[in-house]
Amino acid sequence: MGKKKEKKIQHYSSSQKILLVGEGNFSFSACLAKAFGSARNMVATCLHSKDALRRKHQSSGPHLAELNRRGCLVLYEINVYDMNQNPSLMSKKFDVIIFNFPHAGHCGLNETDYLLIEMHRNLLQAFFNSARHMLTRGGEVHVAHRDDCPYNRWKIEELAERADLYLKEKVDFNAVDYPGYINKRGGAVRCDGKFPLKSCFTFKFCLKENTSQMPDNLLEKKFKGMTLGNVVISGL
């Protein structure tokens, strides 16, 4: 038999090993599965237990049925803080790890509150620290995120940098490009409702060790200050 034809949707293809974390009602995962015709290349996860997911996201049923029908591995109670140590994931490597619109929950706070922003930053930092260990060589971490105030105060590029990840590309995120995808709120406050997407992007990060793919300005930053024999490289 001939090799199956690769199928694509936006940045993703049926030939990639894909991990999706923090899925709300699993509509994004289901969209990819439909586009590929099969989901055997995918692992889709959420933080909630199966019962809690049904209560919080009643619309998840058809999407989960779609994923199961197409062979996707669906995992519950996966925390991004330590997902690389989870027995169901620790032996796996992925070409792309996707976290769409990460959110630490509201906890009665406003999105502009410093404490909540710090909670969001801690969540993303833990995610980057964990995800970096789960990438194949040349693999990417994708974060869909609003880039207007106060969300740009999360400074996700800085957080990724701390985990030795660099920004390879930043591209517009448009929900209409993913038929059937419906974004969901984070936390327990009206969690099955939508939120306005406004100015959104997919941030694509790679491990810094893949220096052949690094933009020139980051290569310069990486090597600046290194020594070669007795010579200090102070600028390029």
TrEMBL record:
InterPro entries: BMT5-like, SAM-dependent_MTases_sf. GO terms for cellular component: cytoplasm. One of its GO terms (molecular function) is rRNA (uridine-N3-)-methyltransferase activity. Residues 19-185 form the 25S rRNA (uridine-N(3))-methyltransferase BMT5-like domain. GO terms for biological process: rRNA base methylation. This is 25S rRNA (uridine-N(3))-methyltransferase BMT5-like domain-containing protein. It comes from Quercus lobata. The lineage of its organism: Eukaryota, Viridiplantae, Streptophyta, Embryophyta, Tracheophyta.
